[in-house]
Specification:
Length: about 210
């Protein structure tokens, strides 16, 4: 009977044995190991984890410029909604007072109806603009966390349209020799528009 073979005590540990290679799974293409050091060998490199997510160079968190725009829109949205509701209430009150005053006077029914119609239409238009602005601003600010190009261009388009309306308001005030009260909102929206075109913000939304 031959004795069972045993490892040579003079042989260094690890020599003569085939190293165990763990199976590589997942996605991605791991970098190759250094020469003579396969994955799993003692002292060898650890395989890199699979890579998921957006393209390289894309920020993982919302940049500070985008966060600033979001906060400003969250502030401006409720202000617009409150202002629209106040103007709508004033319009309704004015129409009611006008109807009561007209019924007590000797004005004809057709003249009273026409005057109240014009007053109601103008008041509704004046109240609707800030109300729509406030709802749109609040909704866009709420969805800005979604990394979609549609959200990005929606925010940009909203601020550009607001800028155009404010420009018309400023020119109208100047032509009527009044104080251009829309300068502060104009700067407000011009700042937000510029921040949305910052490179980090564009990269965050993949634009």
């Amino acid at each position: 009977m031959h004795p069972s073979s045993s490892p040579d005590p003079h042989q260094p540990p690890g020599q003569g044995q085939q190293p165990q290679y763990p199976q590589q799974g997942g996605y991605g293409h791991p970098q190759g190991p250094a020469a003579g050091q396969p994955y799993g060998a003692p002292g060898g490199p650890v395989p890199p984890p699979p890579q998921y997510g957006a393209a390289p160079g894309t920020p993982d968190t919302m940049p500070g410029a985008a966060t600033t725009v979001r906060v400003l829109m969250f502030i401006g949205g409720p202000i617009g909604i409150i202002l629209g509701l106040i103007l709508g209430g004033i319009t309704l009150l004015g129409v009611g007072v006008g109807a009561a005053a007209g019924s007590a006077s000797e004005a004809s029914g057709s003249e009273l109806t026409a005057a109240l119609g014009v007053l109601g239409a103008l008041g509704a238009l004046v109240a609707l603009i800030p109300l729509v602005y406030g709802v749109a601003s609040t909704w866009l600010a709420a969805v800005m966390g979604r990394r979609k190009t549609g959200v990005y261009w929606g925010v940009v388009a909203f601020n550009v349209v607001a800028l155009l309306i404010l420009v018309l308001h400023v020119f109208a005030a100047i032509s009527m020799e009044g104080a251009p009260g829309g300068l502060i909102p104009f700067v407000f929206h011009a700042t937000m528009t510029g921040l949305m075109f910052a490179p980090k913000v564009r990269a965050f939304y993949g634009v």
